[in-house]
Amino acid sequence: MKKFFVICSLVLLLVLFTSVTYASNFSWDMAEGTTITVLFNQHTYSEAVIKKISEFEDLTGIKVNHTVIPEENYFDKLSIYLNSRAGDPDVFMTGAYQIWDYAPAGYLQELDKFIDDTSLTAPDYNIDDFFEGILGALRWDLVPGHKTGTGLQWAVPMAFEQYTLAYNKRIFEEKGLEPPKTMEELLEVTKALDEFDGKGSYALALRGTRNWATIHPGYMTTYANYGAKDIVIEDDRLVSRVNSPEAVEMTEMWLDLIHGGGASNWSTYTWYQASADLGAGKAAMLFDADVVEYFQNPEGASKEAGNLAWVPAPMPEDRLDADRKSNLWVWSLAMNKYSRKQEAAWLFMQYFTNADYQLWAALNAKCVNPARESVFNNSEFQSVVSKADGYSEAFEATVDGTGIQFTPQPKFFELTTEWASTLQDLVAGNYDSTQEAMDELKVKMDKALSDVELE
């Protein structure tokens, strides 16, 4: 028996020794002398990374060549690079929706083998520190119709936006109004604030261009909170549900908001115009990304800086007890499947998504929302965001329900752009009813989805 215990002890010591030795194999300079290329979208998040590239180079001995492309043509150029399969760029910025095209096409390197290898990933990287819904938005099993959150990890988060309601508390106080909690209250407040400061001023800023980006922020957040689905799997094929009773009810509410107190030229509005109007005091509210509203609030950032406040996205009155949802946009770093320098590429990706960097970026470079829970809960960060009235509270009330509310499928951009076009036609009065418009949209979507294979 004594001999048995001695043998067991030796085996245990060997296992522990082996584990420690294995973990200690990680070294930031393992790819010293390598040169990688990185493609950035022009954004606050990429500006922050660029400021720290020299520190990364000093630590790792890796040379980084980077290119920044404006957002309006970033993804077009990225697609050309990836389609060439030449291996450049090694690392690039992406959103979650693009993964539904890039991963099935074989452009993306799955990351689990890097994350799980303790010789390639720093022991303090802690993948579990990311908010679950944010990291999960970048995990997918490649099957159209299957939700994100399962399958392989295709990218790692830089920072993200969720969708809340920002309002000008100065205007609300002057008018004796309370921030709305329900969609019905939002409609009442919107009507009450129409032309609140004379012609040209209006109540609620919303996106409206004929573009997928009109559907994915406040509209899709509200759509999900009404319990509506965009696409489902039925009889082994993808079928649109945009004409369901919940979808029609929600869309009618959205039309009422636009007609009741939206911008007169709503159909031209991107998030830039919408956020600028909030900051200038031209709009009293903005239902969009919490971060774009946040950028208008620091001292000197806009005319109404310091007057902005946040509440969670209003819920339908009859669904106040339902779990609150928000759609999601998450800027992320991904690796080119054809990169010949994947080890160095992964070092870059983990350096610029680790907790230390993300805390610095959140405190010093306006990189909100942080994708890591430890960064959001950091006392210094909380001190900074406490200056934004209600921002932290709205974040916490929303983040657990934040995720991709769309159904992954390869024709996302085509179909959401068609959806935005239908919304424009409805606002313009080109249909006799919302039901008629959504029925027609369903037919178009079903036709486009008819050749999508689920296997």
TrEMBL record:
<keyword id="KW-0732">Signal</keyword>
<dbReference type="Pfam" id="PF01547">
    <property type="entry name" value="SBP_bac_1"/>
</dbReference>
<dbReference type="InterPro" id="IPR050490">
    <property type="entry name" value="Bact_solute-bd_prot1"/>
</dbReference>
<protein>
    <submittedName>
        <fullName>Extracellular solute-binding protein</fullName>
    </submittedName>
</protein>
<keyword id="KW-0813">Transport</keyword>
<feature type="signal peptide">
    <location>
        <begin position="1"/>
        <end position="23"/>
    </location>
</feature>
<dbReference type="InterPro" id="IPR006059">
    <property type="entry name" value="SBP"/>
</dbReference>
<comment type="similarity">
    <text>Belongs to the bacterial solute-binding protein 1 family.</text>
</comment>
